[in-house]
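Hi L.,

You mentioned the student needs an example of a multi-chain input paired with its predicted structure. This one should do, with 226 residues in total across all chains.
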Amino acid sequence: DAKTTQPTSMDCAEGRAANLPCNHSTISGNEYVYWYRQIHSQGPQYIIHGLKNNETNEMASLIITEDRKSSTLILPHATLRDTAVYYCIVRVAGETSGSRLTFGEGTQLTVNP
Amino acid sequence: NAGVTQTPKFQVLKTGQSMTLQCAQDMNHEYMSWYRQDPGMGLRLIHYSVGAGITDQGEVPNGYNVSRSTTEDFPLRLLSAAPSQTSVYFCASSSGQGYEKLFFGSGTQLSVL
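Structure written out for the whole complex:
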């Protein structure tokens, strides 16, 4: 699996957009980018995933650069409840890899009032 | 739906004791897995299963056993607890339909004295 690099921590003002970067310069063509978050002491929560096109769902948007070497997770209007550790994960999608995501240390996002 | 249910939420053991952490899911997911999370660190995969009767080792399997006799249940057994196994344990499941949307339980906080 490609290695990912994320900033250790970030701050964001409530109501503003939170842009969380992730570098995955060694990503291969069949590897997806996944984002999860973990609110204090809870189990991680799936946010979004993508291969090469930008993706949007009810929680966030995922912007993947054209060369796929980096991506940005965007929370359009951050709230205090979005304070969490955000994990960027790169993994080949496949039948037997469903349970084997590798979680790094992630980015601690703190949303301030 | 209950999703992924873990019991107990908290457990204190003495060194050398054995115990079983329970995990059950009601989503008919084929893929289940166990992770541990030490303070300030990301999640590390212990064991995983791609279906009933099939299990395999993850990144940190030593000291743990698993079995998968039904689709719903995936218990994690600590054979002889050690202080190094003090951690928060998360169970997760996924449908495995080509991309990894993992659903996590709320975790079991284990202390080994």
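You could point out the following to them. Chain A is about 0% helix and 45% strand. The two ends of chain A are 37 Å apart (CA to CA).

Best wishes,
N.
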